[in-house]
Design a protein that fits this description.
alpha+beta, 160 residues, 41% helix, six-stranded antiparallel sheet, 2 domains
Length: 160
């Protein structure tokens, strides 16, 4: 490319392009982002130092119902639930939400180097909470957090 063409291109781009390179993010925005980060750190430090109660932790409640089973699957293609002794309770060709939860469990177990098939405990509490827990990996999830329809899927597992 000739130097005349390069000069013509630079003139066509004009001074706005050159000044934009100097400051892609405005200083005001950078200062605001830094201020937000510092405010977040200050609030978190205050909460930690003063031992403020944790509001996002579920309240303790007595166990109403509990069931232990083995949960295994292959992505979203199939999920199998069986008793710890090996009796198959359900073999779901399309696992739906159960497969989604099983994928989360599978990921947690893979990260810890544990076998993918897991013995889990499904627990219903008196306050309406429902939790699926894998004692071996420490993984757990609050089933009710995914909505009433998905919770109903797991409630049916008590009837198997």
């Amino acid at each position: 490319m000739s130097s005349q063409m390069q000069d013509a291109m630079l003139k066509a781009e004009g001074p706005a392009f050159r000044s934009r390179d100097k400051e892609m993010i405005p200083r005001v925005l950078l200062r605001a982002m830094f201020g937000l980060a510092m405010a977040t750190l200050a609030i978190t430090t205050y909460a930690s130092v003063t031992d403020m109660p944790k509001v996002g932790v579920p309240h303790a409640a007595p166990v109403v119902q509990s069931r232990t089973f083995v949960l295994e699957g292959d992505g979203v293609r199939w999920v199998r639930l069986s008793d710890p002794d090996g009796t198959v309770l359900a073999d779901m060709e399309n696992g739906g939400f159960v497969a989604v939860v099983q994928n989360g469990l599978k990921r947690a177990r893979t990260l810890r180097g544990l076998p993918v098939a897991a013995t889990v405990t499904l627990t219903t509490f008196a306050n309406g909470r429902m939790q699926l827990h894998d004692a071996e990996s420490g993984w757990s999830t609050e089933i009710g957090a995914f909505g009433p329809y998905n919770k109903a899927v797991f409630e049916r597992l008590f009837d198997l």
